[in-house]
TrEMBL record:
PANTHER family: PHENAZINE BIOSYNTHESIS PROTEIN, PHENAZINE BIOSYNTHESIS-LIKE DOMAIN-CONTAINING PROTEIN. Keywords: Isomerase. The lineage of its organism: Bacteria, Bacillati, Actinomycetota, Actinomycetes, Kitasatosporales. Signal peptide: none annotated. Pfam families: PhzC-PhzF (PF02567). Belongs to the PhzF family. This is PhzF family phenazine biosynthesis protein. It comes from the Bacteria. Gene3D superfamilies: Diaminopimelate Epimerase, Chain A, domain 1 (3.10.310.10).
Length: 273
């Protein structure tokens, strides 16, 4: 069985967020325990498994995502990676759109004429909340604001500036104890930056200490910064060690996430799922 690793939301190989992707044949998925075991073996933020749905009128493929410890309901970078491989295999032509059935409903990915990819995801609903008391201990700095992100299930914190964001020193245990399994920390971009806003994402509660680039988090970042900057089309920079760019276009209840991807590993499993 073939397995490939793709750097998603990357400007060049070895940046962005690596995802492992397995394109399965039509038919039932392997047992969940086997999928989870392979995701643990790969030890990346997510491993994606997709299978064609030839008889489904609403979707073309079913797509599932696993961290090293659990299945998750939404993942942007592994969706981008999967669409990239469908395009590479001639299953998604330029200008074409693929429909994925997922735990978060049917998600779309379009192969743009310039070879980039655009994901169509639901926009997160932001509700201002008090900054959690333990946030300062978790990240070594004070947050200036906080939001609940509704069904996205992530806690969104804002810190004073990009320098503060870059210098965060998270305590994984304290971060995992905050009221969400995933915490997005964001700040306005430096004045001379080419991006519009910056972020980092921490998910120790689901086995990911810091996620390199988190597409789904930008469904919450896009409405926040689009309102703040009075523009619907923005570029977000995720300031992990690998870094990555996500182009966001706010379209009401949907957010478009654009980026590039590179295949860096093409291998075959020596065991059966």
């Amino acid at each position: 069985m073939r397995i490939r690793t793709v750097d998603a939301f990357a400007e060049r190989p070895f940046t962005g967020n690596p995802a492992a992707v397995v394109l399965l044949d039509a038919g039932p998925y392997p047992d969940d325990s086997r999928l989870q075991a392979l995701a643990a073996e790969m030890n990346l933020s997510e491993t994606a498994f997709t299978r064609p749905l030839p008889d489904d009128g609403e979707a073309d493929w079913e797509l599932r995502w696993f961290t090293p410890t659990t299945e998750v309901p939404l993942c942007g970078h592994a969706t981008l990676a999967t669409a990239h491989l469908l395009a590479a295999d001639g299953l998604l032509p330029k200008g074409g759109t693929v429909r994925f059935r997922t735990l978060s409903g049917v998600l779309l990915a379009t192969h743009e004429p310039d070879a980039t990819l655009t994901l169509d995801f639901p926009t997160a609903r932001l509700t201002p909340i008090p900054v959690p008391e333990d946030a300062s201990a978790a990240f070594g700095t004070d947050a200036v604001a906080a939001w609940d992100t509704g069904s996205l299930g992530m806690l969104l914190l804002e810190v004073a500036d990009e320098r503060t964001l870059r210098g965060l020193a998270p305590d994984p245990a304290a971060a995992a104890a905050l009221p969400s399994g995933v915490v997005i920390v964001t700040a306005p971009a430096d004045g001379d930056a080419e991006h519009d806003y910056a972020s980092r994402v921490f998910a120790p509660a689901v086995g990911v200490a810091e996620d390199p680039v988190t597409g789904s988090a930008h469904t919450a970042l896009a409405p926040l910064w689009s309102e703040r900057l009075s523009r619907d089309d923005l570029t977000g920079m995720q300031l992990s060690r690998r870094t990555g760019l996500v182009r966001t276009r706010l379209r009401g209840e949907r957010t478009l996430l654009g980026g590039s991807a590179f295949t860096v590993l093409d291998a075959h499993l020596q065991v059966e799922l």
